[in-house]
UniProtKB/TrEMBL annotation:
Residues 31-129 form the CopC domain. This is Unannotated protein. InterPro entries: CHRD (IPR010895), CopC/D (IPR032694), CopC_dom (IPR007348), Cu-Rt/internalin_Ig-like (IPR014755), Ig_E-set (IPR014756). The keyword Metal-binding applies. SUPFAM superfamilies: E set domains. GO terms for molecular function: copper ion binding. GO terms for cellular component: cell envelope; periplasmic space; plasma membrane. Its main location: other. The lineage of its organism: unclassified sequences, metagenomes, ecological metagenomes.
Amino acid sequence: MRTKNGFWLRTLSFLFLIFCTVGTIPPASAHAILIKSEPVAGSTIKALPEMVTLTFDTPLLNAPGTKVNSIVVTDPMRMKASTANSVVSGASISNVLNPPMLMDGIYHVSFRIVSNDGHPVTGDFIFHVDHNLNEASTGPTTTAAPHSGSMILSSDLTGEGITDEIGSDSGYAIGKFLAKFDTSEFCAKIRTRNLNNVLAIHIHPTNTNTLTVKDEILLPVDLDAINSSDYVCKKVDGKSLDFVAQQPGNYVVMLHTEDFPKGAVGGVLVFEQKQDDGHSGTPLATLFRLWPLAPLVALGLLVALLRSKRIPCRRA
């Protein structure tokens, strides 16, 4: 015969078993949440930065040999401005930018990340670039006198040239640059050593007060310039060329790699030679330009001399 006490004992045992079973089920993990972006989502900035960095509220999966995390940036012309490899560090992911050219307008950032718990997250946002930002409120801005012709510059790039980060100990590069003012082109040929997987090459302005390199990109350099025997040219903003020509020593060439996304080697631009536009120059330079015409000039002078000393014909 069953008693009431036996019924309640069985009931309490069953409820205790359910409680223990539910208690052993792990709680569902939340998806990673974007808590910070540089540039700030929806913001307007004055110049395109060297990289885009996203920070989440949880560490990201960073398995060697995998590319499950990525950032893609497109410019106002919908051309890809990001590089192929995004770098993960803890809860942050960065991508060095290598734009086809610099322009104002809307830049679109899309990302796909996987947190350590295996949950994928995708998202996107935009930011604006406006080189005229705050000009009205800050008064007259620094201007550079327009230049013509072309200018040859050079730079020796080493790891010591990366002043605010740790650069490469063994890598170095030697760069030759040609600024063409009449066609607004910046040309380069760069020899490198012990530098692999180059992501981007930028010309950055420096902060002359703090002696640091600014993050903004003044001029992008074409990656085809690496170990090229000829100059590789890229269309750029003419005003940026004028600024570089006015004070080359205020600008740094920085080469970014997969191992050193914030800069592997860097070096200050050095003025080498100014080439005129072909309409002016020293008398000696003019003489050298006319040297190929010397034989024709000599022949013309000889004909003129013979005509001036022509012997009259005698009549029979």
